[in-house]
Amino acid sequence: MPELPEVEITRRGLLPDLHGKALSDVVARHAALRYPLPRHLARLLAGKTLRGIDRRGKYLLFRFDHGTLIVHLGMSGSLRLVQSTEAPGRHDHVDFAFGRRILRLRDPRRFGAVLWTPEDPALHPLIAPLGVEPLSADFCGDWLYTATRRRATAVKLFLMDAHTLVGVGNIYASECLFRAGIDPRTPAGRLSMPRCARLADAVRATLEGALAAGGSTLRDFIHSDGSAGWFQQQHFVYGRAGEPCRACGARIRALRMGQRSTFYCPRCQR
After folding, report:
1. Is 156 a catalytic residue?
2. Is 16 a catalytic residue?
3. Distance of alpha carbon 270 from alpha carbon 268, whole angstroms
4. Fewer CB within 10 Å: N-end or C-end of the chain?
5. Is the per-residue pLDDT at 1 higher than 70?
6. Catalytic-labelled residue, pool 58, 156, 179, 195
7. Please, are residues 167 and 206 in contact by the beta-carbon 8 Å criterion?
8. Is 208 tagged catalytic?
9. Which CATH architecture has domain 141-264?
10. Hey, where are the domains in the chain?
């Protein structure tokens, strides 16, 4: 968390306000995030115009004429637009000033990242290995069936492998598998073509539903304007261990997979 919907919602929220605006200053209060902040970042960006904001997986790409600022929100980060008069809080580590508007990075756990590349960001070592975008035309049942052949890993862990498929983290992997009626422990390579088609449709529907609902706000995620997402109110299984399944009434179960909590319905998911 944040996962693909939350990152995409952040991108969409920031773009109308910042596109074509000149960045006047960068203020770093904590240089030690997941990686050290680039040196002389203020000197690199002061006076430069933001040409666009793209997303690759869970990375936001702030594009300037001379390079790209790569931002990852980590486990607890958020980007908010605030007035320059608003005092920073304890966990507000980096400010990007666009005149009187401040793009403020808040990251309580400091697992986020702010990086700079003068090259094509697609070649950056953190971006280059990323897999298929689940909302792109490349992602479909045929692709999923081919990608899962001879894969013994559990299908939930397969969905969360960013080198194969980007942006589907712990929350949405559980939700996608419920919609598809697939037990999260099922070896990926055992999925039939019809089940792969159903799962691909479920992934797309789940992510699009989360985008429409403004994402999931469980702890730290907020929109760029400070508001919260509401998709967590529509969760079928995630975080609902012991509660009745919304479809059949059976008790939702939880288990650990890949050191993460996994939620599923033992009756609906086979």
Report:
1. no
2. no
3. 7
4. C
5. no
6. 58
7. no
8. no
9. Orthogonal Bundle (1.10)
10. 4-123, 141-264
